[in-house]
Amino acid sequence: VHLVESGGGLVQPGGSLRLSCVASGFTFSNYGLGWARHVPGKGLEWVAEIYTDGSSSYSDPVKGRFTISRDNAKNTVDLQMNLLKSEDTAVYYCARDYWSGEYDYWGQGTQVTVSS
Fold this sequence. Notes:
Layout: E1 2-6, E2 9-11, E3 17-24, E4 32-39, E5 43-50, E6 56-58, E7 66-71, E8 76-81, E9 90-99, E10 102-106, E11 110-114
Parallel strand pairs: 2-11
Antiparallel strand pairs: 1-3, 3-8, 4-5, 4-9, 5-6, 7-8, 9-10, 9-11
């Protein structure tokens, strides 16, 4: 199982970024996929998940600003992030949900910095 994130970078407050995660080594359509972020000193925070039926859920801090999507033909899960705030600055990880919100495989992470 392999997960590789991309798309991070530096963006000004109010701006947008789109993160992408390419998966391999398993039957992608059979699993939920999630995004989480790590802020130094604050630990790991769950951000969003998209389930096998295409439905999704979000943490309160990002609800209404972030959108998670998946493409089962390309084995990708994306996170569209709009109206970014400084508190969104973190390393973002995608992960595979093997059972009801339990994640077993993680990518290497991509840094998102929101700053003017």
